[in-house]
Structure formats: C-alpha cells, structure tokens
Design a protein that fits this description.
Elements: E1 2-7, E2 12-16, E3 23-32, E4 35-42, E5 44-47, E6 55-60, E7 66-69, E8 75-78, E9 87-91, H1 93-102, E10 107-111, E11 114-118, E12 121-122, E13 127-131, E14 135-139, E15 148-149, E16 152-154, E17 161-163, E18 174-175, E19 179-182, E20 185-191, E21 194-196, H2 199-202, E22 219-222, E23 225-230, E24 233-235, E25 242-245, E26 248-253, E27 256-258, E28 275-280, E29 283-286, E30 291-293, H3 298-304, E31 308-314, E32 317-320, E33 323-327, E34 335-341, E35 344-346, E36 350-355, E37 365-377, E38 381-386, H4 399-402, E39 415-416, E40 418-429, E41 432-437, E42 444-456, E43 477-495, E44 502-512
Parallel strand pairs: 8-10, 9-11, 10-13, 11-14, 12-19, 13-20, 14-21, 19-22, 20-23, 21-24, 22-25, 23-26, 24-27, 26-28, 27-29, 28-31, 29-32, 30-33, 31-34, 32-35, 33-36, 34-37, 35-37, 36-38, 37-39, 37-40, 38-41, 40-42, 41-43, 42-43, 43-44
Antiparallel strand pairs: 1-2, 2-5, 3-4, 3-6, 6-7, 15-18, 16-17
C-alpha cells in the first residue's frame, strides 16, 4: 500500500507500508501518469515539479496505483523579479523580504538555481517558499545582521507576558533565525534546494560558552500552526537547525539536516511544547542530538502546562550526534504519546535518550512512549533513561542533584511513566546495551523490552552511558536498571557482553521470559 503524506501545489510526498527500517526490502520504480520517473529503495519518496490543482496517477512497482491531486494556489512568482541576484555575493535580503511581504495569501515564491546571500527573513501566513534543486539560501556572515528578539514582553494593557524568543527551555532573548515566523499559520517550505546557515564562516561556532545572547536557529516557528517543510536540505545552523516552539500540526517530510560532527549544539530538530508533529522519511547527521523533543524548563512548565504531545517519528535515519532521538532534558511541561518506528540509527552516542533531573517539576511527566522496529548499528549505548542529567543548569553539582539518598517528593520532582521497546536490532554496541537510572523517591514506573538483540563491536571502547554526576566508564556492559517499579524483559538476547547480562537494583517487579 502507498499513502500520500503531503500534496502541495508543486510537490508531493508518499510512503510505502512495510515493516523495514527506512529502506524498502527491494528497489522499486515510480511512474507518474504512465511516465517512468525514477527508481528508489527507501520507504518514503517525493515528487517535485508538479503543476498546481491537478490530478495525477502514481504507480509504484508492487503496489496498486494511487490517484492524488496537488493543492491550488493563487499565484507563483520568481524572487529574481524582485531584484534578487542569486550570485552568492550580493546581499539579497531586501529583495527576498519584499517578495515575501508582497505575496498574496495562497501564493508561492520560487527560488531558481543560485546562491541567495541573506540575513534573516520573516515569513507570514498562507504562503509557500519553493527552492529549486540548486537553489541555496546562504546565511549572512555579519552577526550584527541577526537582530535580537526579546524573550518576553508585557502587554501594555493587560500586563500579561507575550513570548517571542527562547533558548533551552526558557523564554529569553535570542538572535533571530535565518527563516523566522511567529503567530502565523499555513506555511510551506518545499523543494530540493538548501537552507545553509553558513555558521562556520560567520564565526557562530566560536566561543559559544562566552555568548550572552543565544545563537540563532536556522528555522524557528513560535506559536505557529499548519507548517510543512518538505524535501529541502537544512544545514550548518549557528545552533539548532529546526525549532518549532509552542506550535501545532507540523510536518517534516523527506528532508535532510546536516552539520559537522564537531559543531556545537547543532541539534537537527527540536520540537518544543508542540502538538501533533510528524517527522517522516528524514535524514540526520549533526553535531548534537538528531531529534530532541522538549517542553521547557520549570517556569514554562508550571505556567503553561503544555506537553510535547502526539509526535510520530517514522522511517528516518540518524547518523552521528549525541542521541538519535532524545526526550528532554527540558521537559517540564511533559511529553506524551510518542511513537517511533521503522527508523535506522547509525554511529550515534546513544540511540534512545530520555533525560530529566530533579528540579524539572511535577508537570514534567513523560508517558506513553513506544519504540518499535528500530535498527541500530555502531550506537555506543542503544537505550538510555537518565533521571540524573547534569548539564545546562546552574545547580547541576548541588547536593540536591547529586545525592543518591531518597528525598521527599515535592513540586520539583519529575515523573517517568511507561516505556515500551520492541522488535529492535542493536548491532555493534560499545558502552552498554541499556542503561536506565531512576530516582529513589520517584522510580521509573514501567519499562518493557521485547524481541531485542544486542551485540557488541569487537573493538568497543569504554565510555559513559549517560551524562550524570558520579559517572563511571563502562565497556560492553549488559542491561542496567536502577530504581524501576516494574521491568519486563521478554525474548531479549545479549551476545558478547562482559559481566552480567542483566543488572537490576531497586526494581520492584521483574519479569524475565
């Protein structure tokens, strides 16, 4: 079966239905209206160069034909007609911004082949930005061209706070992103072109800990809805690449996100306090987490109680980075209803990385998380659940966050609920197969591992399975659990570990079959 994931005016995205991770079982041919287009071997594929408001018939080897209709549009205009040079040298900022401002609702702004050197651009509702295959939006290297956006301001009449900027879970000032929208809706960024932050040339990756104002993201959406990013390559952001914030109905489809492995804080995609996010058919290779799902630190969590909810991640491939898929650690609003399936993780430090700490608050609840049909290769530690995360907070070395003694449960105590991991193949591990460490006063509620194989790299090197205080180096360790209420390990094979396959401390109920 073939399903349509997206059909815009000029592009469409489709998914084959099978159980394999990212790649299809065999190569197939795609035909459109009887004309052969290309062959492919991935579960997600796209078509570009389509005509608006037209019905097409799609045929894929081994599947029933599918009819679909592209979206209508009011107009399509070329950015060069507004004066953009696209030569990689002239400053095209004013031409691009003028074109966006002039575009009517339902309009499409087209970027033909070329390099468009630009400072930040503000997007607006009901428009499509289309980048041709050899079109590049290249970030300006002059840091002064990236305005500082306030974190929050008080409404002049009501006195209520209005949020504009954010960084690592707090409403704080930030540099404006290269592509930027706030309080907008119905925006599409599509095509086979590239949005490049040009961060190395701009000096954004230098002296990052000395900066008082957080570096710009590549693409930032604040309190937006109905957003689709399809097909493009996003790369070399000053910090996070794609950052939807307090937004809803967001689709990331068949896109690539790249940054050098040693680039600082270049997370590929960080949906924060968002609802209904689909990340399907994407490819990631970055210097930090590939996907980090967040919901703010304790101030935002208490105030808005806005969880990251209804996220689906499917048919994606993650390479390098600290974590393939991370939850937290800024999760004070909670995370619920997350499904990850048919994904491929390669050479990341951790595969599934769930992190929180004392101080995230009583609304910091992660529950309803399922990973299935996931394949990992060369991942140092495939599964990590860490309630002792010790980065990014001024009190991380305090007695409160280091003591292993059981503390009173109060308004600062986070909660981790039910986690399911099944039908997974984890090859060539290095540090440990699984490392789950809960709080003594608030154990992880329930973990189920089912139908999983773990093997180890013959040349495995020691490392730290999680980021916490009083850490210890491990190498080829088995499955480690501490402070878990209920643990089920069913049909799990650990081949080649050093020491015990299963170490369980302070586990209330253990089922092993």
């Amino acid at each position: 079966m073939i399903r349509t994931l997206f059909a815009g005016p000029t592009s469409a995205c489709f998914e084959t239905d099978n159980k394999t991770a990212y790649f299809s079982r065999c190569e197939y041919t795609v035909t459109l209206d009887g004309k052969e287009q290309f062959t492919a071997d991935t579960n997600v594929f796209s078509l570009f160069g389509l005509l608006p408001d037209r019905e097409y018939e799609l045929a894929v080897t081994g599947h029933e034909p599918l009819k679909f209709r592209t979206a209508a549009e009011t107009c399509a205009v070329n950015v060069r007609d507004f004066g953009a040079a696209g030569d990689g040298a002239a400053d095209d900022t004013q031409s691009i911004q003028t074109a966006v401002n002039c575009l009517p609702a339902g309009g499409r702004l087209y970027f033909p082949d070329g390099v468009y050197y630009t400072a930040p651009i503000c997007l607006k509702s009901h428009i499509t930005i289309e980048l041709s295959e050899k079109a590049v939006l290249l970030g300006h290297t002059d840091q002064s061209r990236y305005p500082v956006i306030p974190g929050e301001l008080n409404d002049l009449v009501t006195g209520e706070s209005v949020h504009f900027g954010a960084w690592e879970g707090n409403a704080v000032p930030m540099h404006q992103a290269l592509l930027f929208a706030e309080y907008a809706e119905d925006i599409r960024i599509v095509g086979r072109g590239t949005v490049d932050g040009n961060a190395r040339s701009g000096g954004w990756w230098e002296n990052v800990k000395d900066r008082k104002i957080p570096r710009p993201r590549l693409i930032f959406f604040n309190r937006c809805k109905d957003i689709t990013i399809h097909g493009i390559t996003a790369q070399n952001a000053a910090s996070w690449q794609l950052h939807p914030y307090f937004s809803e109905h967001i689709d990331f489809l068949d896109l690539a996100v790249n940054a050098p492995k040693d680039s600082p804080n270049t997370d590929a995609m960080d949906p924060e306090a968002c609802d209904n996010v689909n990340i399907i058919g994407c490819r990631f290779s970055v210097g930090d987490d590939c996907i980090a799902i967040k919901s703010g630190k304790i101030e935002l969590g208490r105030k808005y109680k806005r969880p990251a909810s209804r996220h689906t991640i499917r048919n994606c491939v993650m390479r390098f980075g600290h974590g393939a898929i991370t939850l937290g650690s800024e999760m004070a609003g909670g995370v619920k209803d997350l499904t990850v399936e048919r994904c491929l993780f390669e050479l990341t430090d951790r595969g599934i990385r769930i992190k929180t700490r004392r101080g995230r608050g009583k609304d910091a609840v992660i529950d309803g998380v399922l990973f299935e049909n996931v394949k990992m290769d060369g991942v140092l530690t495939p599964i990590v659940i860490n309630m002792w995360y010790n980065c990014c907070d001024p009190d991380r070395y305090s007695e409160y966050n280091t003591t292993r003694e059981k503390l009173p449960v109060d308004d600062r105590t986070p909660y981790l609920g039910k986690f399911g991991f099944r039908d997974m193949q984890c090859l060539n591990c290095h540090v440990a197969a699984c490392y789950c460490d809960g709080l003594p006063e608030m154990p992880i509620d329930e973990i189920t591992l089912e139908n999983i194989d773990f093997t180890y790299d013959p040349s495995a090197q020691p490392g730290y399975p999680s980021m916490k205080n009083n850490n210890e180096l491990l190498c080829r360790a088995g499955m480690y659990f501490d402070n878990v209420r209920k643990l089920t390990v069913r049909n799990v094979r650990v081949e080649g570990c050093e020491g015990d396959e299963l170490i369980a401390h302070n586990v209330g109920e253990l089922i092993r079959e």
